[in-house]
Design goal:
With 237 residues, this protein is of the alpha/beta class. The chain is built from eight helices and eleven strands.
Length: 237
């Protein structure tokens, strides 16, 4: 069942199109990835999906969708003197969420009750990202939007975050829509991929869609991008 249909989506700033004629659909339970080079409009697309900027075309969410959002960056001072627990309670109070429920969410994202007492600035990059996922889960969304959830992480941290997302989908029946810079992870973890470079380049299952020809259209030949499959992996350079 489609939970999102996007038709002829165009976003313009000062009369210049930054996204043009984007068309795709998302089904319930999808692990849906969006890829493209820097400046291709990926974050703009998310902002349009969240209805935080003007656009033309159609964005039709199913009426039962509840969205949780994890931004690429959280614009707060991480050295502020409040703990992870205090950070989560700011949203938990709004939704009437109990501490028991917060503890259950922490367990899902591999954080512990002890982490609640830690200042945000003392969390590692991976822990902080999992804290943001916990924050997004408060209120029981059924769709999660992630803007480059593994930015600035090492490969081990990236794998852990993607494994966490996979576990969340299994345990909470979630649909995940994410922007990613890691084509190999998209190939392994996503069941659909949308490729954009201001305009739509391709859309479909990664195995069929992430061809050398399409990747060159997205990233350009000057990137000396090569594509081959080895033990289920895509390699680019």
């Amino acid at each position: 069942m489609h939970i999102l249909d996007v038709k002829n989506l165009t976003v313009a700033f000062n009369g210049i199109n930054v996204l043009e004629n984007i068309n795709f659909s998302v089904n319930e339970g999808d692990s849906f990835a969006i890829i493209g080079p820097n400046g291709s409009g990926k974050t703009v697309l998310f902002r349009a999906l969240l209805n935080t900027l003007p656009y033309s075309g159609e964005i039709n969410w199913d009426s039962h969708v509840k969205i949780g959002y994890v931004p690429q960056r959280l614009y707060i001072e991480r050295d502020l003197p409040f703990t992870l627990g205090e950070f989560l309670k700011t949203k938990a109070k709004i939704f009437g969420i109990s501490q028991k429920h917060i503890d259950e969410l922490l367990d899902l994202v591999n954080l512990s009750k002890l982490d609640l007492a830690r200042p945000l600035g003392k969390l590692s990059i991976g822990q902080f990202q999992r804290a943001l996922i916990t924050f997004a889960l408060i209120g029981n969304p059924n769709v999660l939007l992630f803007d480059e959830p593994t930015a600035s992480m090492d490969p081990a941290g990236e794998e852990q975050i993607y494994d966490t997302l996979h576990k969340l989908q299994d345990r909470k029946n979630l649909t995940v829509i994410l922007v990613s810079h890691d084509i190999n992870m998209v190939y392994k973890k996503a069941n659909k991929v949308l490729c954009i470079n201001k305009r739509q380049v391709c859309f479909g299952a990664p195995h069929a869609t992430l061809t050398a020809e399409n990747l060159e259209k997205i990233f350009g030949g000057h990137h000396k991008l090569y594509h081959h499959i080895h033990n289920g992996n895509i390699h680019t350079k």
